[in-house]
Amino acid sequence: MIVYGIPNCNTVKKSLDWLKENKIDFEFHDFKKKGITAEKLNEWCKVFGWETVLNRKGLTWKKLSKEDQANINNQEKAIAYLIDNTSAIKRPVIEKEGQPLLISFDESLYAKTLA
Length: 115
Prior knowledge:
Glutaredoxin; four-stranded mixed sheet; alpha+beta; 7 helices; 4 strands
């Protein structure tokens, strides 16, 4: 299992803590340091939808002008933006056996899906 995120994100921290408490093995992929590919983002968008993968609640997104935000209006533009601005990816994303499984952190969903 791979957990994608950035280590200083509170939601990622909650997720990692839950996984450790439940003794679930995982590998952590820090996309601030390791980056992320368009191919990987496309896979996530297929499962979760590009509008879910793009985190519109974070500071990275909010720093954009309203015009720039309005211009990111499809998956292709969102992915181009996310490759350069990995902090705007909703996180964490959990993959199991190479398949996107969960996005963000919801304890009950984690318990149902992973435990």
